[in-house]
């Protein structure tokens, strides 16, 4: 009888390609996607809050109070650095994420990021082309208690700003949906097939 233990068969060699180590882009993709979704979600929530509470509540007030409140809201938002950061990041982060995904040949993740960026770019276009000029018109009134033509300015503001804010909300939600799709695809795809 031998004093050596019986030999064990060698484990089978793994089939398929060897496991790949994640690249720097792969490691950055997850945090980029999460940050993109958070920033876009914050913007969608801001626009949605205006749609369902702020603007309907203001609509029940007289013109002077409406103008004064909107002037104050605009001043608070315009002077808020955190808002500015989130507002810009909601576009920049999906663009960077799309570049990283497409360079890593992960089209399934990159395409929804492009859709998200395009939807949010439309939000920026509406904001710059329409919403900000309307806000400037309100600011140009000066003190609403002594402003001339207040009613006409307020009616013009309401008829354009309010429905376009709904459009901004919808576009932000579409962007957020595309980002969620990218996150799901990122989580499901193997490194070699992303």
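^ structure tokens above, recovered residues below v
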């Amino acid at each position: 009888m031998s004093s050596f233990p019986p030999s064990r068969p060698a484990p089978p060699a793994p089939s398929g390609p060897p496991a790949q180590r994640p690249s720097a882009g792969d490691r950055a993709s997850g945090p980029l996607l999460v940050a993109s979704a958070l920033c876009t979600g914050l913007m969608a929530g801001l626009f949605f809050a205006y749609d369902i509470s702020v603007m309907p509540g203001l609509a029940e007030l007289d013109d002077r109070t409406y103008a004064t409140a909107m002037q104050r809201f605009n001043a608070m938002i315009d002077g808020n650095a955190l808002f500015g950061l989130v507002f810009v990041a909601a576009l920049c982060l999906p663009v960077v994420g799309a570049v990283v995904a497409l360079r890593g040949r992960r089209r399934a993740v990159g395409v929804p990021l492009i859709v998200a960026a395009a939807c949010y770019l439309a939000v920026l276009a509406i904001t710059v082309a329409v919403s900000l000029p309307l806000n400037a018109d309100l600011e140009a009134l000066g003190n609403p208690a002594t402003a001339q033509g207040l009613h006409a300015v307020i009616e013009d503001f309401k008829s354009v700003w309010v429905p376009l804010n709904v459009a901004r909300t919808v576009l932000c939600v579409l962007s957020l949906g595309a980002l969620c799709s990218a996150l799901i695809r990122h989580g499901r795809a193997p490194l070699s097939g992303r």
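Helices lie at 24-59, 63-78, 81-103, 107-140, 150-188.
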